[in-house]
Amino acid sequence: MSQKKRLAEKRKREEALKKELQSRKRMQISIIAIVVVVVGIIAGAIIYDLAKESETKLDYSIGLDANGRIKGVDTSKCVELADLNQLNMNPEDYYPSEDEEDSYIQMLLASYPFLDEKKGEEVADGDVVAVLYKCFVDGEELPDEGSGDNPERIVIGSSDYPEEFEEQILSHKTGESFSFTMPFPLDYSNPDVAGLDAEFEITIKGKYVDSEFNDEFIERNFGGLVDGTEDFLEKYRKDSAETDFDDYVKDYLTEGSKVDVPAAYLKKMVKYTKAKDLKQMASTNETFLNLYGYEKYKNVYEMRNTTKADYENEVLESAKEEAVNNLIYQAAFDSLGLSITEDDINATIEGYAVSDDETESVVERFGRPYLVQQTMHKAVDTYLKESYNLP
Q: Are residues 170 and 270 in the same domain?
């Protein structure tokens, strides 16, 4: 039973529980820092192509001129910028505490368990095991119902798999290969095999066990990206500090600045926000349809977890928030006397590209004005970090 089919089966059980309890929703899980980078690269590659079709009506560069500035708006007349001289200039305030660092390490260890392939270990309830398996019906292999070349990570007793399937594994040891026959459920998601007897060939590769945070752990999971635990933690501390500083600056500018958003620009941002919602819904639905066989959202109201009546107000608030941010950063860029080069713009374009040969499609997708605007925003953040000596 493939992960795709298994998730489909699990969804059926969740839907039944949802009806019984009246309501229940589940959103996606996120992992911080380096884990996010790894997952983001994979997810970005999937979503990048799926989003293109749904973006046909989404204009990222709406309301901007060729220089990435808001059309017809003089920010000196509508933005009273917060006093940048009052920014907190103590870099130590942005570094993670010992408790935060320890929590981060524990999260990493939980996210990257070690696969112990020692043979002869009995599988017990609650164990997390790596299992390779193939599925056959009437002697014919069904690749979509097997694990493929990579072992599945199965938590015994979790009910992620049918109970009979997990019980068969529970009665064996690591390193063993065996087979058994069990029927697919009558309501199985693949009607071609629902109710049929299937033979499964199983190999238990090993058990996942807790890892220890040391140089071996870093080398095993992050390879040549860093040089040991100290280098890894230094990068984490710096990345965390930069992220916290960026968040602090944005909050400081937003809360300390006075902005009168021009009506014409706000109207464009409302249109942009609605189009962005439709794009997000379409790309998410396409991804779920491809991976799990169903669409996640029926409409944008469900995606935003709101009512149709409240949607317009929420869109207006979101649009205003983004408009205010863009106006403030343009005002800060001018107030600080900053400038950007073509190389700076190209660096932004490359940052949005999934691969080196997609820079042209990035410009086509986002529009050069938007990419120039983002380069200006980055220039403000970089200047402030450098000016306030964030190492």
A: no
